[in-house]
Design brief:
about 230 residues, alpha+beta, Alpha-D-Glucose-1,6-Bisphosphate, Chain A, domain 4, 8-stranded antiparallel sheet, 5 helices, 8 strands, about 40% strand, globular
Length: about 230
């Protein structure tokens, strides 16, 4: 299940906060998969190119090319990003250092295990276009940010469900079986839709979805009430 709400940054940035529950996988494997930034084009359709240009301890300098579209406009964005990783806390923080079409961007990813073989990934991101956004279309930009985040989380969910199903078909072991290498192997070879995938959940999962939604609502500022409804 994927839950997303809209947010606004302290300087008016367009943002979103999302949570997805992943089953049949360990938290460390999920974190390693997301941290492998060069694999992003294989599972995130919005990323055309991603390359680590420098490593400094737990910090990576990354060059990415993203495809974008808004109304009738479309093109490529070239971004230079710093990605800070904390393998102990299972967090990843990314911040824009320079780029085209984007004045500011930052994101935060956190992964935690909620039960054996079950983990929760939380992702938050904020962005500010390089051009002024008229008041009349700001809600459209906010909606696009929410859809983008929902697409990323849905892609991750689809990827790990496919991996768990393949392991079950092979009669494999638990959530950590295969470790990081297996996670890396699943970083290629699957064409995934960017968004629109909506599974049918049993009653227990629906209760978990409600708890996630209540948690997100508690973190969202008062002006995102419409965003919560639109993102559901």
């Amino acid at each position: 299940m994927v839950q997303v709400v809209g947010k606004r940054g302290a300087c008016g940035e367009f943002g979103a906060l999302g949570v997805v529950e992943l089953r049949g996988v360990g938290a460390h494997d999920v974190w390693s998969f997301v941290a492998d930034v060069e694999q992003q084009p294989t599972w995130n359709n919005g990323v055309k190119h991603s390359r680590v240009v420098e490593r400094r301890g737990n910090c990576k300098s990354v060059h990415q090319v993203l495809s974008w579209n808004f109304l009738a406009l479309r093109g490529d964005m070239h971004l230079k990003l710093d990605q800070m990783e904390d393998p102990a806390a299972l967090t990843i923080n990314t911040e824009l250092t320079s780029g085209t079409m984007m004045r500011a961007f930052r994101s935060r990813v956190g992964v935690r295990e909620t039960a054996p073989g079950v983990c929760e990934l939380e992702m938050e991101m904020f962005m500010q276009p390089a051009i002024f956004v008229p008041f009349g279309i700001r809600h459209m930009v906010g909606g696009q940010v929410r859809r983008q985040l929902r697409g990323v989380l849905s892609n991750l969910q689809t990827r790990f469900e496919a991996r768990a199903a393949a392991r079950a078909a092979r009669g494999g072991g638990g959530a950590r079986a295969g470790g990081e290498e297996e996670t890396r192997q699943w970083g290629a070879g699957l064409a995934l839709p960017l968004w629109g995938w909506q599974p049918q959940w049993p009653a227990a999962a629906q209760q978990q979805q409600l708890r996630l939604q209540q948690r997100l609502q508690a973190q969202a500022p008062w002006w995102t009430a419409v965003d919560i409804v639109a993102a559901a």
